[in-house]
Batch of 4 targets.
Target 1
Amino acid sequence: MIPNLKEPYGKKTYRRLSDLVEYFADRKAVEAILSRDNPVVYEVYEHPVPPEGEHLIFATTVLLSGKVGEEFYFTKGHFHTEPDGAEVIIGMGGTGVVLLQDRAGRCGEETLQANCVVYSSPGYAHRVVNTSKENLVFLSICRADIGHDYDTITTKGFAKKIVEKEKRITTE
Ligand SMILES: [Fe+2]
């Protein structure tokens, strides 16, 4: 049984569509949505700890259900830098996919759902995609002194995207 770690938390961060403009493939769909709304795509509940290797970052993310064009809502995704350590992602509710991509651009995917664990090995970027009609909730755990590289994903993206076509969930 995984406890609900949203409460108590020290910091809550909202990621809205305007924070993810560069990430979705269909820029026209992004602009069309932003012309009328700026929806929350995900919320992160963090538990601040000292940024030292003896400590662990553990954060609960609530990734909402939704799409931009054909593409399902996802987290930005990132690589780790120094130390380029692993991360454990534990599903707590909902259903989705974790994209795992190495620096050569090889991209795999793992199912994420309640009571399911996905291991992101050292050297792999990770992005979570919500393919369901409900919130996808997951707990992420990694070393507290880990470095984050968002820029590589901002510029190069992931090699795969998860879309819905003719009511079918498809990887492109
Ligand atoms: Fe991470």
Target 2
Amino acid sequence: MRLAGKRALITGGLGGIGRKVAERLAAEGATLALADAAAGESPVADARCYVADLARVSECRRLADEVRADLGDIDLLVNCVGVFERSEFDETTEENWDRNVDINLKGVFFLIQAVAPQMRRQGGGRIVNITSIAASQGFATAQAYCAAKGGLLNLTRALALALAPDGINVNAVAPGFIRTQMTEHQWTDDAFIGSLGRMLATRKGYMEPDAIAAAVLFLCSDDAAHVHGVNLGVDDGWLAGISGAAFT
Ligand SMILES: NC(=O)c1ccc[n+]([C@@H]2O[C@H](COP(=O)([O-])OP(=O)(O)OC[C@H]3O[C@@H](n4cnc5c(N)ncnc54)[C@H](O)[C@@H]3O)[C@@H](O)[C@H]2O)c1
């Protein structure tokens, strides 16, 4: 058991990736707090579930306080919260921009700000953010999402430097295309999956969320004790480049 005795807070814990992260961390002995925007069935029997709108700073602070009061100090914080909302240039509204940025970026920062002091007091901790291939590549129809995820990537690096002296490792996992509710409009589209398969060197269309959970577990484990500020791509080679098959 690689995480025996550890207390983990997973945001977006009832989402596709969050659920698998929860299962994986629990299987390694962690005690879990799962936070999401609405109540739902927990993937892990004895996890505590919390409802919080993590676009709001006051909710981030309330969540950190409640989890600490219920479970004690948090050792591991995994930010799986997120929304993908299309935003084409001429159609992007302030509301659309704010949802993408507040949920994917602002709330993540303020939850870390609320949790890190208790990690500092106990001598360290692990924080893992879920970025995206869209943190490093532009997608023309998702400008606000790209801005938020690119911001989250560089925020991860800045926080890694700020918190490393306190024994806190801050890292990110950058998923490629994962089969979850967020991407249902795409993985149910055969033409989309076909073109993705030609573009990726692995010839695969999509990955399952377990692939991300495995990378999160590594970054939470003692094996990653000296890893700070990385953005670990789990993307079937997407960011390595476009496969030759895409041009044939
Ligand atoms: N699925 C993919 O292909 C993919 C690719 C790259 C990055 N990601 C990132 O991975 C993370 C998890 O995505 P997923 O695929 O599991 O999506 P998902 O929609 O299944 O899960 C996201 C979860 O976040 C929760 N959430 C949304 N807004 C919230 C709010 N304001 N407060 C609290 N919770 C809120 C949702 O309720 C949901 O449970 C996200 O950050 C996403 O951007 C996903």
Target 3
Amino acid sequence: MPPKLNKNVLILGGSGLLGSHCVQYFSKNYNVYWTYNTLKNIVPNGIKFSFFENLESLSEIFNFTKPDIIINAIGLVSVDTCEINKKHAYDLNQNFVEIIVSTLEKLKMTRTFLVHISSGGVYGKRIQGKDTPWKETDNLNPLSVYAKSKIGGEKNALNYMGPKLIIRSDFYGINDLQRKHSLLSWIIHNAKNKIPMEGWENIFFSPISAKKLSKTIDTLIQNNLTGIFNISSTNYCNKFEFVDVACDTIKIKPILKTNEVVSKIRPRYSVLSCQKVKSKISFECDWKEELKSYIRRHYS
Ligand SMILES: NC(=O)c1ccc[n+]([C@@H]2O[C@H](COP(=O)([O-])OP(=O)(O)OC[C@H]3O[C@@H](n4cnc5c(N)ncnc54)[C@H](OP(=O)(O)O)[C@@H]3O)[C@@H](O)[C@H]2O)c1
């Protein structure tokens, strides 16, 4: 086993889908601490933290863990819930980031490297011209409260006077810590239980596994790269193809119908360009190969 780097990493939202993958990945090489909110399992180095119940404990957590790196993976992710509970969305996705930044600055911890997880959803809908993969420099045209609150979170992270990295991504995975459904666990559950599913043929995206994303975040940190980065697969698919390949990998024939979805709050085309990350580090991610290998590793 390689020696641990003598660095502390604090993963805010370590019980979530991405956070739990980051905890697993970063624990190989760093001293990892992480927070949870509603998680019931007791797991080493987990710290209870709730924005609505003990926000004031954030300074104590920072003082106790002395993080060289913070990864903020706390968020309200459901696009529909964000529309219904706007305050909750802005509190978690936007205002909390301002509080992280002001707490770090107040504690004079501005050498801490802050990684903030944003979303590929911030790009929204192209106003002019045809669809091409979104670049970090493109204008944002958010369609939902979720996307607007994530843009607010990015702006707050960019105001941090220390080193900061903002990740725009669209990831999948299975959270082994808790039973909350993710896109992938929902697909596999439906396929196994013969529950009919619709595969949206008109929604295009560039999904990456939470595992590969965690690894890529580490590489960016190790290379001291800061600013905004898209991290996604380097090719793309529609949601129907994604469901089809996932089910094919577990060798279950799903009850799958093609369909087209019309939604005012979900972008139809959220394919991200990885040109920037590819120009800085060695990075390649074929969505189909990555999805198959993630599922095989998970179920082996
Ligand atoms: N999922 C995606 O496809 C996707 C795509 C692009 C970007 N993102 C962004 O990536 C980040 C992580 O997403 P995810 O899918 O991993 O989310 P997730 O599985 O829902 O995890 C959210 C995390 O936030 C914690 N949390 C929720 N409410 C909290 C509160 N009031 N106080 C403190 N902690 C709270 C949760 O703790 P408990 O679970 O213990 O309650 C959990 O650790 C989010 O910022 C999201 O916007 C997600």
Target 4
Amino acid sequence: MTIDPALLSLYPTTTTVSPDGLLTVGGVSLTSLADTFGTPVQVVDEVALRTRAREFADGLARRRSNSNVAFASKSFPCTAVYRVMAEEGLHIDVAGAGELVTAVKAGVRPDRIVLHGNAKTDAELALAVDTGVGTIVVDNWDDITRLESLPGARQSVLLRVIPGVDAPTMAAIATGHHGSKFGLPLGEARRAIAHMQASSRFEVSGIHLHIGSQILSVDAFAEAVDAVAGLGRFDVYDVGGGLGVRYQRNDKAPSIDEYLNAVTAAASAHLPDDAELWIEPGRSLVAQAAVTLYRVTTVKPGDPTFVAVDGGIADNLEASTYVGTRMDATLADRPGGDDRVELVGRQCESGDLFASDLPLADPRIGDVVAMPMTGAYSYTLLSNYNGALRPPIVFVRDGVATLVVRRETYDELNARDVV
Ligand SMILES: Cc1ncc(COP(=O)(O)O)c(C=O)c1O
């Protein structure tokens, strides 16, 4: 039984398909993982995760020796993932106290943490300073006032600026345009830099920008570097994340090499030669490392035929009307097929649609559906919509499956209710 090579290329790098059509990831068959851990379950290919981290780190270092990759942990804020990224030598960016606490718990060195947030509280900044976070990204004047009022040694900061670049992506995840809620416009940024440079509280290491997520053209990244170059000479320029990925077999996305070529060329053209170039990939680092397994619960023949599974936007909000990403999938023991179906979830919204006109091989109740490209923002955006239990995460490597997050229980569903 064959699998469309374009579909196969969406799965983690260690994925194989046996002659009789059985998919394996990390040397473990996907149907056996569904049997052992139940469904829905998120399966992470550890080798794929590590390989991708190295591609970014080595690729950037090769092009610009003065460089640094931070994992944008908002894309997969799970202890085991933090640990892998830290082991691979990446710095970690966190947005808020929750991600900061998780990163530290996972063993990330505080001096390798970059703290973000457009609405940091007194408590979050105090925690960051107490923890010894290496870099705080100042977003606004209130961050400046709060940091000035906190005791402590000089704090290394980057200032987040709005480059005024319209990234070609969905409005909900664009962040670098004029009027964005993140950072300060260029003119105000100059004043904020001058203010911080005059204060003994701040070590102004440089500039930060991030123009958005799921960006499928590299030109906007280069444009943003150009836009901030006139702010002065700094030690560090952190140009954020944002590289987009393919979700369906016919999608196209720039490769890591194309992305790195674009940002390093822009840095060479516009930034001081000795400045450090930092990037913060999230989605493009983790998306392809995970496959989510579901079981078919309902097959409703008709025009169209609906195949419903035991998960949905509760475990993958990207596939909702909010982001509108459409996914791809196949059956874990019968890839291919030519039954055209609407693959839908179980949450009570018509926008809970994973894929339209998806070819499957005679799907039946109980079949395991293997959905690739679910590593980014699925765990981040988990909810208990319709009382869904948050699914487990299983790492697979060299034929061994390890549970790293267990499934939520019904008791936990209302454990915080006090009345
Ligand atoms: C400041 C910052 N850096 C990095 C990222 C990672 O972006 P992506 O997952 O698109 O690479 C984000 C997410 O939008 C972000 O807000």
